[in-house]
């Protein structure tokens, strides 16, 4: 099917009478208010026997064959499954928290060294970190290195700036 002539069509093909949608509501309301059309119908076209809707429920129930020979067993497996799964999950959580609690709260020497190396602390900041109480503890030791005074003097003369020493 070729669509060569579709661009030349001027009308849509569907036509409605003039002022159809303007007066449509008014015509419908006028027809509803006019009771002559409803009163003029003697036989509606559908006939229902008398007392049909009063006895329909009884006749339907009589036609059903209700057999209650077997007892009803409630299947509450899902509810008990959720209960058991919740208890199991809480036990796993408790074991994971309390059994795996053997953590070491003490700082290792390597951790302190890494902290001091990564942070550029000067001597004043180090002095603030080490209080007198820390220095007087039994476990606190200062690593002493033996040095030769001649080596120290030669190092200071070669590498130290006299101006920075005097300040």
What does this structure look like?
The protein has nine helices and no strands. It is mainly alpha-helical. The protein has a domain at 109-166. The longest helix is centred in the middle third of the chain and has 22 residues, at 77-98. The protein is elongated and about 135 Å long. 0% of the residues are buried. The mean pLDDT is 77.
Structural class: mainly alpha
Whole-number mean pLDDT? 77
Largest sheet: none
For the termini, the CA-CA separation is 101 Å
Amount of helix? 40-55%
The rounded Rg comes to 51 Å
Query: Got a strand count?
Result: 0
- Counted by DSSP, the helix tally is 9
**How much strand?**
under 5%
Low-confidence segments: none
Shape field: elongated
H/E series, N to C?
HHHHHHHHH
Features:
0% strand; 9 helices; elongated
Topology:
Elements: H1 20-33, H2 36-39, H3 52-63, H4 77-98, H5 109-118, H6 123-129, H7 132-135, H8 149-159, H9 162-166
In short:
The chain is an all-alpha fold and 167 residues long. 53% of the residues lie in helices and 0% in strands.
